[in-house]
């Protein structure tokens, strides 16, 4: 990893919620990535013990199953000396057996933060109004901010910086894409999006993205042609075509997404230094084995970085700790 000159950022995130990256400035996003890099270098590479969460507890509400979000949060929070408490739909029924208001207030009295992986983004917004502790979006129908922080850390590590990169999304206009859309331009990245007709990203989020692109001087393309989107791309990204809760649409979606599989033929249109990302789990129809297991695929580094970025979020929202290493070049 290349580092720039020593620098401090006038950023204070303690006590904040993280529902969407839209609410975070460019400097705040860079700070979170800097924090993640700092923790990874000090703990993983240098073997330091940093009990920054000692005496703190985290409530983890999961309406949807997960591998990476659950494991990265539980192991990361524990590695920092904290106590994560995992709550499934068998333990807690948001808005069913107990109102969201009451749940938020009870958990606020017993834990230091709530990470919730939910179906409805509105549930998170209601919880932030009632809770007195930070609420962190572990995934909702609109956004997946923790995933995108891991993606950006992975790209920063690989390319040595983010500014000027061209990201190409080929697939569904879903929550992962939405989180890229409302953050990429802030970090100076261009965005090219290919989705089938009828599966475009949310129109409101598209309008916000267009505004961000103008403000930050980046390029934005929306198309239905995967090869057009892949032209000149540094990063090719896709995700599941059938999210949890959309199983009944499987037949229709598989038909609509014909021609959207990322292959080496797709990569021929990309830049010579192209890489591939996928938040996992992956299905072969989304990307073939040749790309997925190629040297250009960063998916397993990306998965590991889920841990370091969620740790960075926790440390930033719950403590006054500042990164000790030099700030990376963004």
Describe this structure in words.
The protein is globular, with a radius of gyration of 19 Å. β1, α2 and β2 form a beta-alpha-beta unit. By secondary structure, the chain is of the alpha/beta class. The protein has a five-stranded parallel β-sheet. The chain contains twelve helices and nine strands. Helix content is about 40%, strand content about 15%.
How would the blueprint of this fold be written?
Blueprint: H1 26-45, E1 57-62, H2 68-79, E2 83-87, H3 100-110, E3 113-117, H4 121-130, E4 135-139, H5 145-159, E5 166-170, H6 175-181, E6 190-194, H7 203-216, E7 220-223, H8 226-230, E8 235-238, H9 250-256, H10 264-267, E9 275-278, H11 289-292, H12 299-318
Parallel strand pairs: 1-2, 1-3, 3-4, 5-6, 5-8, 6-7, 8-9
Helix pairs in contact: 1-5, 1-12, 2-12, 3-4, 5-12
């Amino acid at each position: 990893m290349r580092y720039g000159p020593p620098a401090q950022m006038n950023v204070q995130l303690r006590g904040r919620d993280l529902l969407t990256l839209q609410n975070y400035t460019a400097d705040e996003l860079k700070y979170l990535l800097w924090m993640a890099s700092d923790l990874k270098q000090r703990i993983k590479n240098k073997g330091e013990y940093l009990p920054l969460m000692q005496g703190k507890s985290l409530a983890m509400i999961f309406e949807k199953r997960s591998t990476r979000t659950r494991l990265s949060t539980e192991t990361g929070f524990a590695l920092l000396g904290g106590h994560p408490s995992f709550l499934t739909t068998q333990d807690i029924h948001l808005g069913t057996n107990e109102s969201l208001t009451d749940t938020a207030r009870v958990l606020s009295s017993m834990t230091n933060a709530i990470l919730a992986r939910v179906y409805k983004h509105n549930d998170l917004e209601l919880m932030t109004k009632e809770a007195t502790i930070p609420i962190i979006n572990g995934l909702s129908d609109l956004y997946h901010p923790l995933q995108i922080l891991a993606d950006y850390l992975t790209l920063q590590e690989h390319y040595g910086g983010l500014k000027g990169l061209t990201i190409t999304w080929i697939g569904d206009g879903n929550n992962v894409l939405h989180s890229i859309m409302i953050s990429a331009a802030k970090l100076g990245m261009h965005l090219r999006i290919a989705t089938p007709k009828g599966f475009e990203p949310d129109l409101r989020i598209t309008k916000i993205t267009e505004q961000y692109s103008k403000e930050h001087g980046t390029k934005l393309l929306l198309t239905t042609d995967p090869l057009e989107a892949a032209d000149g791309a540094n990063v090719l990204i896709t995700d599941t075509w059938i999210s949890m809760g959309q199983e009944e649409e499987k037949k229709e979606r598989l038909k609509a997404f014909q021609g959207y599989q990322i292959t080496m033929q797709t990569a021929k249109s990309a830049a010579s230094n192209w890489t591939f990302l996928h938040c996992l789990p992956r299905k072969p129809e989304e990307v073939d084995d040749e790309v997925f297991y190629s040297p250009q695929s960063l998916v397993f580094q990306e998965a590991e970085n889920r841990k370091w970025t969620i740790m960075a979020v926790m440390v930033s929202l719950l403590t006054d700790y500042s990164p000790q290493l030099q700030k990376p070049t963004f």
